[in-house]
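Reproducibility note. Readers wishing to regenerate the assembly model reported in the main text can use the exact inputs given here. Chain order matters: entities are listed in the order in which they were concatenated for prediction.
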Amino acid sequence: MSPQSIALWCAIPLAIGVAIDSLELVADRAQLQEGGLYGYAVLATGRPMTLWGPFAPLFGAVFRYPAVLGLAGAQLLGATCLLLAATMRTPALIAPAGLACLLIMASRMLLYVRNQLGLDGADQMTLVVCTGLSVALLVPDYGAQLLAIDYVAAQLLLSYAVAGIAKAVSPVWRSGRAVPGIMSTIGYGSPAVGGFLKRNPTLAKAACWSVILFECSAPLMILLGTPGALVIVAVGLGFHVSIAVLMGLNNFVWSFGAAYPALFLLAHSIDTLWH
Amino acid sequence: MCAVVFGAFLVVTAATQFRRFRWAQWLKSHDACAYIPAWTFFAPNPGVNDTRVLWREQLVDGTVGPWHEMVSPRGGLLRAVWNPTKRARKGLTDCGPMALRMIARKKESALPIIGLPYLMIAQHMAGLQGSPLGLARQFTVVNTQGRDTDDGLFELLFISHWHRQPGVAAEVPLAAPPLPELPELEERTKDAAV
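Running the prediction on these inputs yields the following structure tokens for the assembly.
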């Protein structure tokens, strides 16, 4: 189990998620045009560096519609190369795969310089995974590759720990009102499911506490090594797939799924430590 | 070297989550490309209402049209794999309350309406397909709970001024006065027809 082999496993869901995200950006391109929510004439007023200064014309050239679609295109190109390299798994394609990760990361970071409103945790996990994979696939030093993959796993566990603690201290979550409340929204829920949970408060409380317990226990479960990682991945995948189906947050499956193979490398190190 | 860099990223990520430290807040506010993640998903206060932005237009004869939703919600199973409008909906859900907070902070000032969130909504509203006889448009931010057919919460948070459509001559008078005056926060009604 080498870090680069794990990185190539991470690359498959990452590439699929990035491809979907880029195509969604193109499909909803009306929002990027002037007169759309993300028209650049207004967005440029949000930061001094995009409004004036030596780089403002350069930013304008990249961020105005239709040039901004080039960033979506660059991501799509990067995702295609990454997917090819990850499925073919030939040593010659490892460095190009690392460059594809860098291309995806640079394009996304530029898109986030253009606008940060409307981003979610999946976008941020994508950046985390791209960072780890770029280093693991491009840096020849084995120790650095190992650290890069462990970094992805550590960010994944940190994300669950933070989300779990934030929920555990919240009375809305502890009382069991959070999941039916979120589910009752039309933006992030399925009102029929929300209504059902409101009529079954015991089930609603169980749903809230399941989320809290899973998220809080993930960083502890990894201490069990590979069996712990298997439990996190199995429960986590079920969790993110149900979020995609019920809440429409489709990219979490791919971005968090891309971090899961990294858990196994960390778990392997923990196994070695225990033995 | 790698250990130091990755370790530092992890420490910064952990420190910025609950915004306790001043330096962490400063760092987060200067993070131009959203590199430092925020991992507190739907917590500690989950959004249990829908924040929605609606718009309507006034025609040249003074008629005021019905309210329309700027980005309609999308249901169904397909959104589990394909959900292109989620970003625009999230963007509006972020912009609406941000614009309200800016207005609430500077009650006597007109500056918030040239703030980014307000301008983004206004720009989007102006660009939406409407009547060729449209003279001006206004938007409203509301909180709702449940489906529109349900008898759930309806909370009117804010109604904007009328904004003249681009290209409409300034001499053409607006039939109705700008209603209500800014800021108009926390106005609640259960019977408002939207």
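We highlight two features of this model. Chain A has a mean pLDDT of 96. Chain A has two domains: 1-123+133-140, 141-275.
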